[in-house]
Fold these 3 entries.
Entry 1:
Amino acid sequence: MAKVSYAVETRLAPQVVWEALTEFGPRRADLWPDLSASSFRVLERGGSWARVREGTASLGIWSVERYEWEYPVITATVEEASAAQPGGTWRMEVSPGPTGGSVLTVKMDRKAKGFAGPCSRSPTGVFWRREHGACSRTSVGRPRRRPESLVVLLAMLAVIAFPFVVFPHPRTNDASWLADAQWPLVLVEIAGAVVVYAVFRGERGAVIRMGLGVLLVGSALTLVVSLLVFGNLSNDRFAPLVFFPPVLAITGIAGIVVAVAAGVRHRRELILGAYIGLVLALGFAAWTLTRGARAWLQAPYGFDVLLLLLVLGVGVVVLGTSPNVWALAAPLGRLIAGPRRTGDRRRSK
């Protein structure tokens, strides 16, 4: 029987590490890069326990584990595995670090099985090293870097630069077809939002639905404010500021209602989604009001404003599926972590 103990230090707060250890939703494979999303499946789950099948597909390693936890300790027991005998355990305890951050103490009591046994990984993606072994430990909860966020950022910059690069000196009725393309673009946005509401479920669904709903409602309010500030009802160029806000608002409110109704157990995710949507909506408002009447009276006739809204909507989806998304919620960290602050409640007694 192999008995190994070690400690891993990280700059992450204990509560962040604890939430990563007890995360058994779609984000688990993102939080622990050594887990394969294709191999992960929740078999059973209770309030403080879960049975899951997980593994590393590239190594052909898999296991059925029963997790039981009570802050600050979580224990995983092998029920069936390709590289370990049944009955083996991992015990992981989170504690504050001496100079900040946290320390994850791991105690393993398992017997390897088969060729892959000596390099068998823990369920959390922390590798252990046997004497003279070749396995190395990775940092706790290291998120995968995803290019999608960079692509969305570049798309936003491209949309912002679009009117200045393509129409540096717009003349009357230049590219007037762009004004006619506004409605199809808005219909694409509405249809896309409905599809997103239907496709994404669980924790990610709560973040994305709420974020997209808040963004659409905020954008509708921005267009109304724009109409009041610089609009002119006698000019057809400002018609989008009249007709688009109700459509966007209704779609946004529908998303918020669906998010709340389907995510009553995901309060943290709903708050995070609202935070993301609010930040992006404020960015949309700043750009729209800065562009002013010129955005609608001259080419591209507000097309760039609506195109930016589409890109921001895609940004909500990307952020809602990104392992780095929690860093965006730093100002709301305590509020978001509230429902699972088990350790804090115990210490206060």
Entry 2:
Amino acid sequence: MAGHLYLGKKEGERFTRYFIRPESAQIEDEKALEDDLEQAKKYEWRLRSRSTGHLKSTVYSRNFSFEVGQPASFEEQDKHPCAVEYLFGALAGSLATAFSTECAKENLEVDDIDVRTPEEYAFIGHPEMVWNIPFAFVTYQRKDGKT
């Protein structure tokens, strides 16, 4: 095949598709990957935060800005998410996005991904989601010892 890489074939009803990649394309892909890795190693995260009111700061990063409330809050409602909520939200969002991306790579279609803390399952704050609570978390023991 003149130095080309055979990737496989897919048969249809009246046709067969053959997939090949020129050797130069593989070398170009490897070079692009190496370049991306070098850029990632050299990347410097830039972020700044500015106090913009009582119990409120605005964070600026790349082309985004968002408001953050106090470091931690135990009130039922606040005007702005607290820093801990942003941290947990960032982790949950990253997990959901990564899982969805990996499913798409395997040609799996995902209808919905719902990442929650165990406390969110124990506290039924969303009545429309009650049917979706896994039975393993229904017996979650709270910090005050109640189930």
Entry 3:
Amino acid sequence: MAADLERLAREFGQDERFAAFAAGLKSQAAVARQLGAPETFVPSLPSATPTVWVERDLNITQLVEREHNALKTFFGKEVPVAQPPALLAETLRVAEGEGLSIFQPLYFPAIEFKQNSRFPGWSVKPEEWYWEQIKGGRVDKDAAKLGGYWSLFDESRRPNYDNGKQMFKDDPLEAILVMGRHEGKIEVPDYLREVPKESRFGVSPDEQDKFVFPALTDSLRLFNREHSGQVQVRRPTEMEFNFTGNLRYPYLGQANTWEWLHDSFGDDDRLVGGCSDGGGLADVSDDWHGNRHDDTAFRPEVVFLPQAA
């Protein structure tokens, strides 16, 4: 397959190094999209990684019941759970087919968290600094509200720091990240030369927003859906991150590395948090949206926006 990919790379304006990237893609259609070729141009190629469409055993009734029971335990009371949109199951099937088996359906209830809120499952709250920034207007006044929507949450475990060489295990985003660095859409300054080209570390929020998430949106066949306001592909907010860590994934706060978050801070910064050395799920601070660090990563979340009836 390598020789075929090199031929295609030359024909569509890429050099032969593209073959190394393309070989890591999970479907031949994905190769076509990255080359700018018609998808029908590529499927006749032999492939060491043929497309395999694996449909997760997603029973909607059981899914709603699972979320209902989890929320009842967390809040200590009944919490309504909306039916998931058909697009969620469709997107999950596409994700599985593209090898993006990192996403788990999750429901964010319509509720506002306050610093003095008490819920049985909310054992680790964001630190006081976060609430002060909301009060001071540097973080959006509605930042601690969840809106009654479903998402596909990336349940990957963030690794501990290893001089920038740490990697998310079996990360399906590697091909996108290699391509971004190869094309110069993810900058690699000298101080990040030790960061592997496949790594989620050392990528600024700007680069995530302008390249990584659009590429992922394309892989998930969500481009038109995003532009019509049905879905967003972005980082979790601090409140989503903290809530999910308390509800289901405590390991989000158990690594001594950080994650970029979706929330804006002032005009130019984004929130960052989750480091075990700074309080784990309680940890939250801010940094400039153009910065890159070898100890700060990100995770994508696919948010299905509530639609008017």
